[in-house]
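In the previous chapter we treated chains in isolation. Here, by contrast, the input contains two separate entities that must be folded as one system, with a combined length of 527 residues.
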Amino acid sequence: MAQPALKSGQDAHPIALEVAGLTHRFGSLHALDDVSLSLNQGDFTVLLGLNGAGKTTLYSLVTRLYSHQSGSIHIFGHDLYRSPSAALARIGVVFQQPSLDLDLSVEQNLRYHASLHGLAPRKTRERIDSELQRCGLAEQAGAKLRTLSGGQRRRVEIARALLHQPSLLLLDEPTVGLDIGSRQAMLHHVRELCRSENLAVLWATHLIDEIGAGEKVVILHKGRVLAAGPVNQVVAQAGAEDIRQAFNTITGIAEPAENP
Amino acid sequence: MTAIHYIRCFHGIIWREGLRFIHQRERFLSALVRPLVWLAIFAAGFRSVVNIGITAPYVTYIEYQVYIVPGLCAMIQLFNGMQSSLSMVYDRETGSMRSLLVSPLPRWFLLVSKLVAGVVVSIIQVYAFLLIAWFWDVDPPWGGYVAILPALFLSGLALGALGMFLSSAIRQLENFAGVMNFVIFPMFFTSSALYPLWKISESSEVLYWVCLFNPFTHAVELIRFALYLDVNMLSLGVVATTGLLFLGLAIYGYDPGRGLIARRRNS
């Protein structure tokens, strides 16, 4: 079986995430309906949708919290349900809900998560040092998480997700609850990671201004993918002037998407 | 994944539970105060009222506080099992249960590791209680303190697995208060923790049978016999079987494909 910590960029399979024909229901509610999307290495893709569009359900399925009812999910060519171990070893996830223990220090939190991927103690120390340096929190390694600001905690969440050097980073509304400055800093941080580490990034949000020019966007609405591709292409296909107008046209909603 | 990955992961989960235990001093304190209230107040009052005679594994007349200590040890484990699962319900609502479950190691292994971590904490609590109980003239043979270790491990696993199964089945945190009332108290009171079964049968035959079929009774008796260097084979069998059953149900409950977790909407 595959090693848990592949250096990003070393995966032979070019398609980081391939979701095909994914359908999922909760009772009579169609949470996802025939959803397909694919991410290449080095892609920064924004999954745009209003609250309740099915973003968290999609993340739950892609991270195997529970199984999909039909369709398929491949991560670097590994079927998530046939070889979950190899697939999950390549994913780093930042959940919408905080996943860190407030009573433990930054370093203790990270050590725990490194152990969940079976990292050796020496490797763990190296990776923690390196990720904390990268996110500018090396000084706070010994600080209790409770003493950190919201933005700093989210940066630790990203460091946690990157400890085992995944090649695919999934972020589910990671900027929820952050102020504008922290939000921009976080976006910048992840875009840099995407560039420098050749990471494939899927960034779920309901905030249109988090989409950068030249990036890819997937519009998810009421459980269905209504448009996908480079931003300018999606805008052109909708006959709109910008992505905000395109989103409103495609989803058929009159009011603009939430945008602080 | 090789064996070393499993060992590192197991070690990490136990280590984190240990750290949480150290940081949650109130939890430790309340885990001790609860049985001590029973021992110091309840037992003191009932000592003169209740005559429990000579009941196996005791070979002579014993004082009431000596009788209830094994039941209180099991109560510590029952509460601990439920509190661990309470933290799992809470964890599931925050992201930490999710981040545990996205580990590339098999889910059954992650759940068993988490269960064992909770059992280790409960055993520390029981030994701290037994130490204090020693000053209340509850002084079983020294060998009994060693002999209860495997018994506590087994009963802790069974009660923890029950809690884990419940945590997979409970939708929201609020519902857990109900489980405390509907699981912990009925299990404790319909058991041999406070009175021997023969004594219960004198007053109600129905209650006697309820107590006999209650797995908690057998957790108590397993601990009681072990503390006095004896083995209750029936209790050993019941605790092991129900432990495996609840663990199986918990793993089923957290199974991504079939379990209860799949039937809920998490978004």
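Strands of chain A lie at 15-26, 29-40, 44-48, 70-75, 78-79, 91-94, 168-172, 200-205, 216-221, 224-230. The radius of gyration of chain A is 18 Å. Compare these points with the single-chain example from earlier in the chapter.
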